[in-house]
Structures are given as structure tokens and as C-alpha cells.
Amino acid sequence: MNGIFTALLTPFNTDYSINLDSLKNLVEFNIRSGINGFYVGGSTGEAMLMTQDERKLVLKAVKDFAGDRVKLIAHTGSTATDFAVDLALYAKKLGYDAVSAVAPYYYSHTLQAVKQYYYDIAAASDMPLFIYNFPGGSGFGLTTETAAEMFEADDRITGIKHTSTDLFMLRQIKERIPRAVVFNGFDEICLAGLSMGADGAIGSTYNFMGAKFVSLYEAFRSGNIEKAQKLQNEACSIIAVMCRYGVFQCEKEILTQMGIEMGQCRRPFLPLSPEGKKAVSEILHLI
Ligand code: MN9
Questions:
Q1: Tens digits of per-residue pLDDT, 263-273?
Q2: Which atom belonging to ligand 1 lies closest to the Cα atom of 134?
Q3: Cα–Cα distance between 132 and 5 in angstroms, integer?
Q4: Domains delineated in the chain
Q5: Distance 2 CA to ligand 1 centre (A)
Q6: Is 92 a catalytic residue?
Q7: What is the model's pLDDT at position 72?
């Protein structure tokens, strides 16, 4: 697995229920943009604000819409191992290519407990498993040492979604664990991550900038660094505005303005401010 994977947003209706029509449109739009896969039900998908049944509904809908046209990774991470295992088994039944999980993000568990959570998901599902390393969101920071130990302990642990600005660590992981498939997690440093050895990138802004990042990825792979830098810089100007007003809220607004009705993010996310809406309309032409 490699290339550009969209961390899929979840569109909501005005009553905050899941908008399946828009989800279908979003999946189609992204596949047309050339992306290589979807990361379904992660932070970007607001999975942490959904019930278990809703998470399953999204996993199923995306598989139904996308079929076998692109690779599919199901994010199954949860506060409870049993919930994560339940989602992983469901994703397996649906025919997902791999599962992934953020560390259990409440109770500040011991390292031993966090490792066991991953081993339990891998063993129960018998699926390729991507560790979702997002210290900023989960409070748990993977180290190269721990990663090496986990890859050694279980063959099913296949890769890491590295949502961290520590690209030295990304490099060390690639050197220490040659079989690890590493995805860069912050879109604003996608090219930097690729240049340090990432096999691909999973990100939220690919929902609407998939084509740009696919070009960036291809330019990088073919050695056209100047072109790749130009595309990364263009994306960074857009992401900088989004960071000021709320990344997911801006993404939903951008796609809505592009014609895919995305609705609002669920509470406690606040709605996009009027200034944010205005800023988004002003950057639309840059996409
Ligand atoms: O999936 C996303 N990570 C988070 C990856 O949102 C935590 C990124 O795509 C960021 O949204 C993006 C903006 O910071 O890089």
C-alpha cells in the first residue's frame, strides 16, 4: 500500500444524521481525483463523535460506494478494546484491506496496556493493522523502540500512520523496521514526509485537494522536486487559512461551496464563523 489516501470526512444532514447521498458524492469525487485509497472513520471522519452503529454504517456505505476501485483502511480505534475489535471484525467482513487504530485515548494507560490493545485487535481480526500514531490527539506518543518491539511481536502489524511533525522518527522507523509501511499524517508536511521515506500520505485536505496531492506524489516519485515543492507550497497557503478557522469546519465548507453538501461538524466542534466562511470563499480559486 502506498500513495495518497483521503482521510474521509463524514457529511451530516442538518439534524446531524449521516448524509449518505453526500458521502457517495464525496467518494466518487475523490476516486475521480485519482487518490489511491480511503482511510475511513478516523479523526477527520469524526468517528470519536459517533456511536458504534454509526461507525459501522459509514464503513459499510464507503465499501458499497467504492467497491474495489481503491484501497480501504478502516479506522477502528476506540477507548475500549472490545469496541475496536468489534469494528475490526466488521471491517474484515466487509472486505476492507486493512484496519487501523489510534491508541486508547482516555485513562492514560500504561505502555504495556497500549501494546496489548494493539495485539488484541491484530489477533482478533487477523487483519493487517496500521498503528495510528497521533500523540497530539490521543496523548500517547509511539517511540521507534516501541514500534520495533510491536512489529517484532506481531506480523500483522503492517504500518504506521504517522501524524506527527517528528520526521526524524519517521526516518528511524523506516530504517529500523524495513517492512513498516509508513504514511505521513500532516498534509502541510507531505512532501517532507515523503522525502524522509514515507510510502504515502493519509490526510484530511485530500478530501478536496486529492488531485493536487496525487500530482505532488507523482512528481516526487519521478524526481521532479521543483514541481512537488510548488504543489506543496500551494497546498500550505490553503491549509494555513484553514488552521486559523478550524480545519474540519473549513473542509466541510469548501466542499459545500464546491457542490457537495457536507453540513456542520458535530458538537463540541463549533460552527465555522462568518469570518471563516468568508476566508474560505476567498481561497476557493486556489484549489
Ligand atoms: O488525517 C489529519 N490529521 C488530523 C490527517 O486532523 C489530526 C491531517 O490531514 C490534518 O487535518 C491536516 C491539517 O493539519 O494536516
A1: 999 999 999 99
A2: 7
A3: 14
A4: 3-224 (3.20.20.70)
A5: 18
A6: no
A7: 99
